Structures are given as structure tokens and as C-alpha cells.
Amino acid sequence: MLLNQFLILAAAMFALGVYGLLVRRNIVLILLSVELMLNAVNINLVAFESYLRSSEAIGQVFAIFVITVAAAEVGIGLAIVLMIFRNRRSSNVDDLSLMRW
Amino acid sequence: MTDWLILAQEGGHEIHAGDGGWWADTAGIMLLLPLVAFLLILPFGKRMKYDGAELAIGALAINTVWASVLLYLNATEGVLTQTTFEIARIGSDLVFELGWVVDGLSIIMYFLVSLVGLLVFIYAVGYMKGDRRVPWFFAAFSLFAGAMLVLVGAPNLIQMIIGWEGVGLASYLLIGFYWEDIENVKAGNKAFLTNKVADVGLVLGAILVGLAVGTWDFFAINEAAVAHDEALAAVAVVGGALLFFGAMGKSAQFPLHIWLPDAMAGPTPVSALMHAATMVTAGIYLMARLFPLYENLAQAVRPAMIAIGAITLFGIGLLALVAKDIKKVLAYSTVSQLGYMMTVMAAGGYTAGMFHLFTHAFFKALLFLGAGSVIHAVHSNYMQDMGGLRKFMPYTYWTFIVGSLALAGVGLSGFWSKDEILVTLGEEGYQLVMWLAIGGAFVTAFYMARVVALTFHGTYKGQGEPHESPRIMTVPLVILAIPAAIAGLINIPGVTWPSIGNFTEWLSVRVVAMGDFHPETVDWLIAGVGLLAAVAGVVVGWIIYSRDRLTQADRDDFEIPVLYTVFRHGYWVDDAAYGVVGATKGPVAQFVDWTNTYVIDAVVNGAAFLTMKLGSFVYGTVDQKGVDGVVHGISAAADSAGSALRKMQTGRVQQYAASFVGGALILVVVFVFLT
Amino acid sequence: MSFVDWISEPVNWVYAAIGLVVLYSAFRVVTVKNVVHAALFLVASLAGTAGLFLILGAEFVAWVLVLVYIGAVIVLFLFGIMITRAPTGKDENLDSQKKVWPAILSIGVFVAMAGSSISAFESQLINDVGEPTSTEVIGEALLGRFVIPFEVVSFVLLAALIGGITIARRDLSPAEEEERHAV
Predict the structure, then answer these.
(1) Chains adjacent to B (≥3 CB pairs closer than 8 angstroms)
(2) How far is C149 from chain A (nearest CA, A)?
(3) How many domains, chain B?
(4) Which pLDDT value is given to residue B558?
(5) Other CB atoms closer than 10 Å to residue B520's CB: what's the count?
(6) C50 touches chain A (CB under 8 A)
């Protein structure tokens, strides 16, 4: 196995996540794209760990932390989406451009 | 402080001078005491029993004792010292010092001012009794005494000028003492302004001489004169002439004599002390101080000095013949005697001039005080209101006789001093002036006989019952009569008294040799001629005036047609002076007004205009357009920048995310691929 | 290593298969016009990722991924979708109209990342994985060297918990507040 095969896969996934972040209108879908990006990072981490073979599996431990934080972030994010929906009756990100000139 | 101690060589005999000890070192107190009295009388005089006279008399009494001690020290061992305090300094050479000098000349003056002043002050207590503003009188009189002492004790020209102006101020204040009458004020103004005209010469002369020598110190100037210093020689004639012009004003030489007769408007004690004995002698004193200058370097001025002195001596003396006011007679007489002093001083008679000054102070003060006594009794100055007063006022009469004989030169002190003048004039080669002086002696005796006859003899023409003056006035008269009688004895040529020497020796304690003439023995011929002239004058005057006529017109009635008019108008000198002033004041005032309007005001207005223009320029261009422009420009720039940049804030999160990613991408590319 | 050598290893077949699934699913996540379908495609992508982890010998991480991500996070997403009343059918307005710049940007990102990976790690091999990493090792690491990050992450979770509750709480009107307190 080449190292690069995983890295390029992860890069592609990351790029797709970026695309989704910038294109999607629904806030929840934007969060979904963020999850994609985080996932790509995870692949990178684990691939590097296998390549480097550290004694304490540092890459994998880091990947666990990323997953944990992602979960926390989703919790908060969705709470915020809930509030937005209650206030604005819409989950379209274009309707949220109030802080503009 | 600088102490001087010099030995002088004078024509063969050496003169030794001591330093006068403690009396000379602290002699400055003499100068200050009357001034302190002046300052104290001003606030406290009116609360004192004798209106402040106690302070004035006390100051002068102390001074008299002090001066007497100094005189004795000088007579026995000689005193020659000077104490100065440096007040200011210009550069490294020109110093302004104040202090006092104690040598033969100044000791005589200290003694004179203090003693005569003391007696006049005591007299004035009685004379001014019940008069108005008496404390102010004694205050101004003390100021005068202090200023006069500052003048005669001056070690340099600057202090002398300070004293000079001080006595001029006191003179003005006292002549105009009865200022309720406008004529007295005018007399005061005339005195002050005439002296001020002369002071121009004085100050200019002082500046010239001082800058040439590098110092104003008298000792230094005299030494430079004797050594024929080149710088001083260059300015000596002009400076000497200017200084003489200054002396002319104060000592009432023709034509600046016009103020002295009018100055009789002041109270009689003032006339006695200031305008007879001391202040008017300041000019003579200046000439005496700078005698080496005139003797060695400024000989060219001397003929003019002698001429003016001679005119004064004789011409003004004649004016006394026709005066109807007793004080005016004495005033003209004073001017004439000052002419004697100035003439002989210019002719080289240093000792003769000072000796006459010395004796004149005593008998002239005596005569004035006597006249004051008469005026006090009769309440009028005019001799037509007097007559026969010898029955009522014996003390006044006999002391007046003593003074008159002294003035006329019939024995007594005036005889010896006048004789020395005549001899000096003759020996120095001024024969014509000598004969003129002898003629003047005749005239003097004549008008004094007239005064005595009109005042004390005949029958009383006035009102009321005159009586003798109180003792406080007659005692000074008697005391003054003593030196008036015997002062001449201290300078009989060739006579030297044991242990006190004679006047010539007192005077010769000085820094440099004067090279003046003083007679060694009595010249009996000249003495006889002078005595003869005087006696002749007395006799003629007596014969003419003593006949008792009932009216003044009868007694005084021969008026030589032309001469009488000329004399009465005082040779029209007064009118000429008024004419000159009247003619020039218009154009001068107009010129000054023009200058003020077109020059000074133009400058001021121009400056204001420029300032306004500058102000409006700064406001309009610099502030409105410049500074405000910059400020507005900055704000406009910020505004437009903000307007442009704010369009970035769309509020759309995805755009923010896009720019975020784009920026990160660029950084990655730069850092990873390009570096 | 040449492509032939690469293909001859069986591991790489598995990799190729799973990789295709992952990429296709990720692509569909961002392009499908149905919200719920997007979430479900993400599930597929995540599952594929778990498989990749297994190939790499990271068992623990793989199963944590499945449990946490797929089991909790996606469910949370579905909750969110339902509560925000997202249209559950085909929704034409799901994407923004402007797609050019995002596409360029994402391609740029991909090129940057891939390019740097290739230039740095060309032909580096992951050697034989051998035994999969044991949970014991991860456990020792978590509670040994990384004990502090571990505790901090627990704080993060606590904060997220409290934050979520606080943010999403429904504001009570004064009448209801009164009623609550009375009880």
C-alpha cells in the first residue's frame, strides 16, 4: 500500500467537503459537509500512524480526539440551528444575512 | 570700597595728608542723615511739636559737629581719603560708584552746608511758625540739605549729577512752596527749566569727559588732566565748555541768571540757604573740582568763562540799584558775587574763588535772614513800606550792618576775600577785569548803603507797629554775624595761625597740584584801592539815600532816564528768553504732533493692519483650506475606503467561508510550493 | 512501485473498492437534492471510512467511528433535519446558484493538498501492518501520555452538553414561569 493513496483519497474527500460547505443552502447540510472534512482529516491521521508506527499509536489517539470533538461540535451546532429556526422560521442560510452593511 | 591715600606735591612744599581716621571713613553718614530726616518727617512731622523741625535740626546738628571735627583734623594734619561702593559696571572699565570723598575742598563744603544750614533751620522754626504746611517745608529743606551734601561729597561726576538734580528738585519744591499763588509756581518752573537747559550741557560734558578718561572719578580725571592725557585732551575743550554751561545754570551766570531773582518767591529761609549760600555755589564747586582740567587742557574755554563772569559781576550788580524789593536787591547781589567767584576761578584763582564762596555764604545768609526778620515784622517785602526800623529791631539792625559791611568789602570777611580776588586777577594778567571788579565793589557798597538807609533809617512808612523778631530768629543772626565778621582772618595772605594753619592750607589737601595762584603777602596797594572803592560807595550811597523824605518817590526819585529803564527791565534778558520759548514752542509742538500722527501712529496702525491681514490669511488659507482640508480629506478618505470595504460584509456565511478557504489556499501555495 | 505491483496485492483491491464507495458517497452528499438522502449518503461514506481504518489496522478507531459518528452524530443530524422542518422530498432550492467559484476553490484545495502529498511522499510505502493496534496500547496512551488532553476533552463534552441545553431552551413566557415556580 502506498501512503499516497490514502492521502489523495483524503484530499479528495476534503475538497468535496469544501465544495459542499460553499454550495449548500440548508444549514444542516453545511454541518454535514463539515463532518466530511473532519472525516477526511481522520483518514489522514490514521494513515500517517500506520506509516510511522509510533509506539503509542499517537495518530489513532488523535483521531479519537477529533471524533469526540466533532461530536461535541455537532451538538452545539444543531442547538444553534434550532434557535435560528425558532426565530426565523427558516433554515436557509441566505435568510441569515442580517449582519451586513 | 576703595580707599585713597595720596601725597600731593604743591609748588615746592609737600603736603602730608592723613586718612582722617574713623571720622572720614564713616563720613557717609553725614550725607544720609538729612535724607533720613526727610523720610521720617514726611509721615511723622505733623505729629511733632515743632512740625518735624526737630528731626531736621537734629540731623544738621550732628552733621555740624562731625564736619567741625573733620575741619579740625584737616587743619591740623590734613585729611585726604575717598570711600566708594561699586553699584554697577558696564563692561570691565566703566563703573558706577557711590560714596563720599573727604579732602580739603569737600570738608569746607560739608562744614559750610551743615553750619549755615543748622542756623537757617533754627531760624526757620520761628519764621515759619503758624504758616501752612510747615512739616512739608522742613521735609523738603532736609531733602535739599541731603542732596547738597551728596553733591559736595561726590567722588565722581555721576553722583554729583545725582546731587545736582536733587537740589534742583528741592529748589523747585521750595520756590513753589506757596503754590496757591500762580506766580510762585511760575517762578519754580522758571528755575527748574532754566537749570534743565543748563543740565543738558552738564550731562553731555560729563559723558564726554568720562568716556575719554574711562572713569568719572574726580581724582582720576584730575590726574589725567595734569598728566596731559591724550584722550582727555581731545575732548577737554568741548567737554569743559559743556560743563561750564551746566555750571552757568546752577550758579546763575549771565544769561542763565534769570531764574534767581524770581526764586525769591520762596520763603526767606529758603532764599538764605539755597539761593545764597549753598545751592547756587554748586556750579562754582564743580569748576573747583575740575580745576586741573581747565588749568591744563581746556584753557581755550577760560576767556569765555571770564567774560561771562565779568558781565555777570558788573552788569547784574547794577540791576540791584533799581530794585524795590529788598530780597530782589539781595538776589541780584548774589548773582553778582557768583560772577566774582566764577571769574576768578576761571582766571586761575582756585583758592580765591573758594575763599569768597566761604565768606559769602556767611554774610549773604546773614543778610537774607535779616531781611526775613524785617519782612516778618513789616509783612511786606517792599522797602517803600519800611524805614526807621533800627529803633524797633536792634539785633536785626546791627547784624544786618555787619553783613552789609562784609558784602561791601569794608573790613570784615568780605574785604579779605574780595581783596584776594582782586590780587589774583591782577597777577594773572586780567587787569581790565580787575578794574571792573573794583567798580563792582563800588556798586555793591552803593546799593547796600541804599538798602540800609531805606530800610532802617528815616521814619517808618508802613502800617502797624513793627517789633523785634523772637529770640529763635535773632540768635542765629547773632551767631552768623561772628563768622561774617572774622572769617576773613583765616586767609590773610602770609598769615598762618598756629596749629590750624590757614584756609589756603586747608584747601591744598588735594590729590593733584592745582597750579593756582595764591598771594604770599598782602598787596597793600590793591587792598587799599579796593577798600577805597568800597568806602566811597558807602559814603555816596549814604548821602543820597539817607535824607529822610516822606515818600518813596521822593527818596528814590532820581532816575537816570535811559539807564533806569534798562536796569528795570533787566537788560530785557527775561523777555528774550520768553520770546525764544514762545517762538519755538509752536513749531516744536506741531512737529511732535506730526511725528506722532504720521510716524508713530502709522507704525502702530501698520502693525495692527499687518497683524489683521496675517490673521485673516492664517484663518482663511492655512486653517480653513489647509488644515481643515487635510482633516476633511482624511475623513473623506476613510469614508470612501469604508464605503468600498463594507461591501465585503455581506452577512452571508458561505462567502466568508469561501474567502477563508481561498486565503488559506494562497498561503499554502506560497509557503509550500514557492519557498 | 509500479501499478502492476500495486494491483497484485489483494489489500489494494479492497482499498480500491472501499475507496470508490467512499468517494461516490461523499460526492453524492454534496450534490444530492434531497436533505435526508444527503445524510444517508454520509452514513455510507463514514461506513466506508471505517472499513479503511480496518485495513490500516486501526480497529478501535474504526469501531469508535461507527459507534459515535454513525450511531450518534448522524442520528442527531436527522433529528435536526426533522425539527427544522426541512423539506423531505426533492428540493430544487437546496444548492445556491453560484457554483463556479466554490468548484474552483475546491479543485484548488484538492490540487494543493494532493500535490503536496505527492511531492513529499512519492512512492512511500506503508509496510505490512501486521497485528492490528491493540486497544491496550491506545488505552495506555490515552490515560498515560495523553491524560491531560483526555480530561480536557471531557470538559469540552461537558461544555457542549450544558451549552446545548442552554441554547436550545425554550424561553418561558412570564405566565408559564409563574406557574412553574408556584409548583
Answers:
(1) A, C
(2) 8
(3) 1
(4) 59
(5) 9
(6) no
